[in-house]
Specification:
The complex is a heterodimer of chains A (about 300) and B (about 300).
Chain A (H helix, E strand, L loop, with lengths): L1 H5 L9 H7 L20 H43 L12 H22 L1 H9 L2 H6 L5 H29 L11 H22 L5 H16 L11 H9 L1 H14 L9 H30 L2
Helix pairs in contact in A: 3-4, 3-7, 4-7, 4-8, 4-11, 7-8, 8-11, 8-12, 11-12
Chain B lengths: L1 E12 L2 E12 L3 E5 L6 H8 L7 E6 L4 H10 L1 E4 L11 H11 L4 H14 L15 H12 L6 E5 L7 H16 L3 E6 L2 H7 L2 E6 L2 E6 L1 H8 L3 E6 L18 E4 L4 E5 L2 H10 L6 E6 L2 H9 L6
Helix pairs in contact in B: 3-4, 8-10
The chains are: A mainly alpha (about 300), B alpha/beta (about 300).
Chain lengths: ~300, ~300
């Protein structure tokens, strides 16, 4: 069949060659898929296929951390604490019920948590414990394919997690209006602004203890001090600076504006929207370049 | 046509020289082995041939291509069985082949069409829906080989294919590799097992400290570097060197190991009679054919498995 296929274009009509090319296969018999640019192999899509196959096996175990935990936060902080903070029509942030304030922040924080969960032990394990990356790199896949496929998987996970959270918030009226749906892609971008630098970190560290440091000194503080649960202005100046460096602060500003809608006092002028998005894109982009570099250094010896 | 051609090939990691200028040529259809102890540079060599590790010096072509510029093209035509299986343990056997086949850009249909025959070849048909974690060591190894064959490679690289397997599993694996060889697949393998090299390799090189110290067929290497037979003598002494004098002149060469003396002789039984006639009485005596182990000992002064 391979011979027939190779002569396909010049073979007489009705020959085996034509049958083969009618089949639409762009892959020759030795299993080499060549695009016009001569690229070989399955590329990042094949790597994505691996992560999805694994996710299909383990998704049940992610339900609690991905969907239940944020809703518990929303219930506890938003409704429980909110009842103390707001009294009648007087709300701590004027014009914004506390539950709405928390919900629009949590969606971003949840994206950060998901991004971190998907790019720490998964990356480290694929390098060191399971050697998945070793197995991939003896095939035509390149280091960039590994990073891209993994990050596209993270993007899909982020979309799912943020999407479910926004839908539930809409049902609970903790978010309002059609613009709230636009908080999903923004939260995804915010997640990616963490995913790529954390990926680079995970591909660099030699021992898993590094993740404790990351969790305690980066993720947890940012979770608390990025305006998720209270406005940044409440903090002393030093902590505010950390808050403004944190991509989460910028994600929260965006998801909050979109989740609360144009009538809320936390709506943003267009240039602020653009600035926040640009800042997140910068982290995501720089992190991506660092991730590719780190993984190449780690895997190509 | 030679599939692999290396001249003065080197691999260094900082100051450490793993491969120190080796010349190798492997022809299509051949079964070729790198024999040597751990740390001899076998795996580094294999990784360079597999286009996963950059060459530090010298020339290397695989399928006539330079790994530095055509890594993916080379890998598309290779099957690689690494030292550690690195299977997707949480996935089913069948899914492992599917996921891996996609790495080569194969369509789902293509992989599915190949899965049946490959599982049959690997004697895993009944396990096709089992999660990999539950398989035995030998089964995992066979699955790794099946996986490496998903792209129908013409060259299969095997790094220590049977290390860690029990004797029975090793024989099953050897049988599978024989079949591949018969089907015209070129095999290149590393091993530190003599019997494996003798079983599988048409031709091999003996490596030590990153260099090639001998090259030839197993038979010719034995003929060249060892005698026809070996008489092994064990004595009840702490240091076997004490007893060398008592057997002087009987053998072409005597090697002193920690627990025995090796006498390289043409006629083992005859030599044993001579030993007895001298009134020397070892705890035990064994006559055997010379093996690649003896070749290695001769060439490097060390045992292969230390």
């Amino acid at each position: 069949m391979s011979r027939a296929h190779e002569q396909g274009p010049t073979a007489p009509p009705g020959s085996a060659g034509e049958v083969a090319s009618v089949g639409g296969s762009a892959v020759d018999d030795a299993g080499r898929a060549e695009t016009p640019t001569g690229r070989v192999g399955g590329g990042w899509r094949a790597v994505l296929g691996y992560w999805l196959a694994v996710y299909k096996r383990i998704w049940r175990s992610t339900v609690i951390s991905s969907f239940l935990a944020p809703l518990l936060y929303l219930a506890g902080m938003g409704y429980g604490l909110g009842a103390l903070i707001d009294s009648g029509d007087r709300t701590a942030v004027p014009g914004v019920p506390y539950v709405a304030f928390v919900a629009t922040g949590l969606v971003a924080a949840q994206a950060m948590m998901t991004a971190s969960a998907e790019t720490t032990y998964n990356v480290f394990g694929a390098i060191k414990w399971l050697r998945t990356y070793d197995a991939m790199l003896v095939t035509p896949l390149r280091v960039v394919d590994l990073v891209r496929g993994h990050l596209v998987y993270v993007l899909m996970r982020l979309t799912l997690v943020a999407g479910v959270f926004v839908l539930v918030s809409l049902v609970l009226r903790a978010m309002d209006g059609p613009l709230a749906l636009a908080a999903v892609p923004v939260a995804v971008l915010g997640g990616l602004s963490f995913a790529t630098p954390i990926y680079a970190f995970s591909a660099t560290i030699q021992r898993e203890e590094g993740f404790n440091v990351l969790q305690r000194f980066v993720i947890m503080p940012l979770f608390l001090f990025s305006g998720t649960f209270f406005p940044l202005a409440q903090l002393p100046m030093g902590l505010q600076v950390i808050g403004w460096i944190s991509p989460l602060t910028h994600t929260v500003a965006l998801t909050r504006a979109l989740g609360l809608g144009p009538d809320s006092p936390l709506w943003l002028e267009p240039w602020r929207f653009a600035a926040h998005v640009a800042y997140l894109a910068l982290w995501a982009g720089a992190g991506y370049l660092l991730a590719v570099r780190a993984l190449r250094r780690r895997m190509v010896l | 046509m030679s599939l692999i051609r290396a001249t003065g090939l080197r691999k260094t990691f900082g100051d450490f020289v793993a491969v120190d200028g080796i010349d190798v040529e492997v022809a299509a259809g051949e079964s070729f082995g790198f024999l040597g102890p751990n740390g001899a540079g076998k795996t580094s060599t294999m990784r360079m041939i597999g286009a996963t590790s950059p060459v530090s010096g010298g020339e290397l072509t695989v399928f006539g291509m330079d790994p530095a510029s055509h890594a993916s093209q080379i890998k598309a035509r290779l099957g690689v069985v690494p030292q550690t299986d690195a299977l997707d343990e949480e996935l089913r056997v069948r899914e492992n082949l599917l996921v891996y086949g996609r790495y080569f850009g194969l369509t789902r249909e293509q992989v599915r069409a190949r899965t049946g025959p490959l599982l049959e070849f690997a004697q895993l048909t009944e396990k096709s829906d089992a999660v990999v974690e539950s398989l035995s060591g030998g089964m995992k190894r066979r699955l790794t080989i099946a996986r490496a064959l998903i792209n129908e490679p013409s060259l299969l690289l095997l790094d220590e294919p049977t290390t860690g397997l029990d004797p029975q599993a090793r024989h099953v694996l050897w049988d599978r590799l024989f079949r591949l060889k018969r089907d015209g697949v070129t095999l290149v393998l590393t091993t530190h097992y003599m019997d494996e090299a003798e079983q599988l390799c048409d031709r091999l090189v003996v490596m030590d400290h990153g260099r090639i110290v001998a090259e030839g067929s197993p038979r010719s290497l034995i003929a060249q570097h060892a005698s026809r037979e070996v008489l092994e003598l064990r004595f009840d002494v702490a240091d076997h060197a004490e007893r060398v004098e008592e057997v002087a002149g009987i053998a072409e060469r005597v090697e002193v190991l920690a627990d025995r003396l090796l006498l390289y002789v043409h006629d083992g039984d005859g030599a044993l009679e001579t030993v007895a006639a001298r009134g020397v009485h070892p705890l035990s005596a064994l006559v055997r054919r010379a093996s690649l182990e003896d070749v290695f000992l001769r060439l490097t002064g060390r045992s292969l498995i230390e």
